[in-house]
Amino acid sequence: MPAPLIANLEKLLGTPRDGALLRYSLGTEHLKAGNLERALEHLREAVARDPKYSAAWKALGRVLADAGREDEAHAAWTQGIEAAHARGDKQAEKEMTVFARRLEKKRGA
Asked: How far apart, in whole angstroms, are the C-alpha atoms of residue 2 and residue 74?
């Protein structure tokens, strides 16, 4: 049974409020609930709807890394770094750069 917040958010799917923010919110809530595949589905949709949504890229990379899909996580963070840079979101850019470097270091070790 989905958490009440997830259920409430899912009621908005397919309505005029269905956009990148809703999909990001659903993705992060599913991540908290441990539903990685559902989180991936919504976060991928969030970045498809708004390719410059740096927070969604950061979360997508995290879910992919948690799922053991390191190459995909690195690719998501790389795209997220570009999106953050384009938006001037320096904090997200720094965080994803650190995540990507840690992943590179881990793969190289």
From this structure: 29
Per-residue tokens: 40: 């991936």
Mean pLDDT of 8-15: 96
Pick the CATH number of 4-108 from 3.90.1570.10, 1.25.40.10, 1.10.4030.10, 1.10.645.10: 1.25.40.10
Distance, first Cα to last Cα, the chain: 40
Q: CA-CA distance, 106 to 83, in Å (whole number)? A: 24
**Does the predicted TM-score (pTM) go above 0.85?**
yes
33 falls in which pLDDT band (50, 70, 90)? very high
Token pair for residue 7? 């259920």
Q: Is the pLDDT of residue 27 over 70?
A: yes
